[in-house]
Automatic annotation (TrEMBL):
<protein>
    <submittedName>
        <fullName>Uncharacterized protein</fullName>
    </submittedName>
</protein>
């Protein structure tokens, strides 16, 4: 999810956090009330900050989670996903997509566009 959509979809973010807590994830960081904010990455040559929606640990491995929700800026969302996927591969971490009803087709089309068809979205 991009920064401009955070307020609009805060309820979905909270339900995702509850799902992850119930699934055994620990040290959860998210840009939500009551949670520590995850580390941001600054795109060199511009003023674009990339912050994962949720960062959590399970069994000693760090996972990056992104909420896939319909957006007015799909190009920005695609570049964020590609960056986080590359970062997770470099650091032996996991990158996963969380989506919800009404956003499944959008998510699948986005993953196909950036050639990440092998990613299976978590459906909440």
């Amino acid at each position: 999810m991009i920064y401009t959509d955070k307020e609009k979809y805060s309820d979905i973010l909270n339900s995702s956090l509850t799902y992850l807590e119930n699934s055994g994830f620990e040290n959860i960081k998210a840009d939500a009330e009551g949670y520590e904010t995850p580390k941001s990455y600054l795109k060199k040559g511009s003023e674009i900050n990339i912050t994962p929606d949720i960062v959590a640990e399970k069994e000693g491995r760090t996972h990056y989670f992104e909420l896939s929700l319909k957006s007015d800026k799909p190009k920005l969302l695609k570049s964020k996903w590609l960056f986080l996927n590359t970062l997770s591969n470099l650091k032996s971490r996991r990158f996963k997509i969380i989506t919800t009803r009404g956003h499944y087709k959008f998510t699948q089309e986005m993953l196909e566009d950036i050639h990440l068809e092998d990613k299976k979205p978590i459906k909440i």
